[in-house]
Amino acid sequence: MKTPLIMEGEITEDRHLLVDLQSPGEVERDVRLAAAIEWFRRGIISQGRAAEIAGTPRADFIDELAARKIDTIHVDFDELKREMGLA
Q: Which of 7, 19, 31, 36 could form a cystine bridge with 53, CB 3.0-4.6 A?
């Protein structure tokens, strides 16, 4: 049995539907990346772990975050002050 492909598309100005077919592997990669980004954004996992989950090098993961305008680092200012001996 053939695996169905997921279709993404958009309607162009002339009202034709442009369809991009994604293979199951592409869909899996996109889902892993989306999950990793969301978990990182929520502070549930580290940037390195998120890159592992996404199956991408850390530098590429950072690029993905930047492309989506998501902060690439999380800073807890209270913790930073304690580490610097200012608290």
A: 36
State residue 45's pLDDT score: 95
Sort 35 into a burial class: Cβ within 10 Å, 0-12 / 13-18 / 19+.
middle
Is-above-0.70 flag for pTM? no
Query: How many other CB atoms are there within 10 angstroms of residue 5's CB atom?
Result: 13
**Distance from C-alpha of 14 to C-alpha of 53, rounded to nearest angstrom:** 40
Are 64 and 30 spatial neighbours (Cβ–Cβ below 8 Å)?
A: no
**Distance from C-alpha of 53 to C-alpha of 61, rounded to nearest angstrom:** 10
For residue 11, pLDDT beyond 90: no
Residue 12 has pLDDT above 70, yes or no: no
